Structures are given as C-alpha cells and as structure tokens.
Amino acid sequence: MSFFHLAKHIMLYLGLAIALFSCSSRNTPAPVSSIHSSSVLGERNRDSIKASQYLVKKGETLYSIAWRANSDVRKIARLNKISSPYRIYPGQKLFLVEPKVKKTAQVSKTKVSHKNSTKSSTANKKNSTKNTLASTKKQAYGENVSTRKSYQNSTLASEKFSQKISRWQWPVKGKVVEYFSNSAQGNKGIDITGRRGTKIKASTTGKVVYAGNALRGYGKLIIIKHNEDYLSAYAHNDRILVKEQQIINIGDVIATMGDTDANKVMLHFEIRFRGKSVNPLKYLPKR
C-alpha cells in the first residue's frame, strides 16, 4: 500500500471518530427544570409585610394590612391605639410589632441611715396592714362591685366571641388542586378549580371587612370577619358582588370565580384564627 493510500485511510478513520464523538456530545441530556414547582411558587408569591412599621396606602383597611402581616387585627389596633371600627387613612404610620423599650436603671441619690430606714420600714408595714384591712372592709361592703361587674362583662364578651363557629360550608363546588401547608413557602389555604363565572358563596355568616385588589398575588379579594377570632378570604375572583361593611349570611353569593393574579381559573380560600392561617379542611364539611 502506497503512502498516499495509507494517509487516506488514516484521515477517514479520524473523521469517523470525530463524528461519533460529536454525536455522543449532542445526545447528552439537558438539565431538567421543574415547571410544576415554579408555577406553584408563582401562585404563592402573595403579598406580605415583614417590616415592624408600615405606611397605609389608598384602598387598604386595617384588616387587609393585618392579613398581609399575618397578624391579629386587634393586636395592631392596640399598638396604634385605634378603636373599633378601626378606621385608617392613607399615609398613616402603623406599628406592626411591639416597640422595643430601653431599660434604664434607677439610682437613688438620697442616703438614709440604717436607723431611719429601719423605722421607715416598720412604719410602712403598719400602714400597709391598715390599708389591707380597710381595702378588705370596702370590698366586703360592695364599694368595688362596679369594677368587678366591668371585669365580668369583658370576660363574658371575650368568651362569647371566642366560641367556635358551629357551621361552615364550602364556598364553591370544584376539585381541590392545592392543599394547605404549614411550611414557609406552603399554601396557606386551599385552591379549588372551576369554570369562570361560577358563583362563590360565603362559608358562614359575617361582615365584609375588605373587598378590593390591593393585595398582590390575591387578585380581586374578599375578606369576611365572622367573629372576634375568625376571618375567611376568597381570592382570584372575576367579579366582586359585595361591599365593605356589608353584613352577609352563610350561603350568600359574594363573587364569581376568575383568574385575577393567577395562572388558571380557581378560588383560593383561606381561614384564619386570631390572625394565623389554619387548614380549611378541618372546618369545612367532608364531601
């Protein structure tokens, strides 16, 4: 075999080897990304407040702010000395957590001799004993009855509002596609699919405390207060059929199903107890 033919064969084999190598490289699988997980995270990218202070914006209510802060509306009202019905205005500064108070040590500048302090201590003990006896007599004669009644009434009122709601109903018929989760990035309610325009009903009796679309990730949202402890929310509505401060009964139509701020037509439904998310399936009847 001549040198020319030998070189030709070597070049041919070399070309085949390069071709095979390039084919195997192209067949290497591409990195896999989870489309499902990213879409779910997109759905759960809902508005929240983590700051200790907040400036009220137009269209917000104290209930919607408490909802975003995952806090009890009564706590925020107490921190800011806001009484019921919790009226706020745009630009108002709110404290969302208890301000930190610096502790300062108090130093007495007066020096007292041992004898004087002993006499003073003895006198204070005698006066304290007399005051205790006088206080006991006054209570026995009923002079503090009004205070006791006030305390009892407030306790009864608190117990009344803390009673468990006896009846809940499903807000809409449909398939539950996302369930409640306690994890940080988990779903804080349940997602129910259905057709656009399907009627959404109140899960139980209450008062509408928010109706609007100011909360990112919820779309057109309705929040209903049922008592001093329980709230429910209905998100991604197509149309809102109620107004704030409106009293509604269990089963009343409050909205129609839609996909506002969502990637599919569905209802996102939440229940909160004292500002914290709870699993709606523990309250809704089994079906």
UniProtKB/TrEMBL annotation:
Protein name: Peptidase M23
Family: Belongs to the E.coli NlpD/Haemophilus LppB family.
Presence of the UniProt keyword Signal in the record: yes
Domain of life: Bacteria
PROSITE patterns (UniProt xref): LYSM
Domain called LysM: residue spans: 52-96
Biased composition (Low complexity): 118-138
Pfam families per the UniProt record, alphabetical: LysM, Peptidase_M23
Lineage, highest ranks first: Bacteria, Pseudomonadati, Pseudomonadota, Gammaproteobacteria, Alteromonadales
Signal peptide feature range: 1-27
Keywords of this entry: Signal
Ranges where the record places region Disordered: 106-153
A GO cellular-component term linked to this record: cell outer membrane
Keyword Signal appears in the UniProt entry: yes
Single GO MF descriptor: metalloendopeptidase activity
Ranges that cross the membrane: none
InterPro entries per UniProt: Cell_wall_metabolism_enzyme, Dup_hybrid_motif, LysM, LysM_dom_sf, M23ase_b-sheet_dom
Organism: Colwellia psychrerythraea
Regions annotated as coiled coil: none
Comp. bias (Polar residues): 144-153
PANTHER family: MUREIN HYDROLASE ACTIVATOR NLPD, PEPTIDASE-RELATED
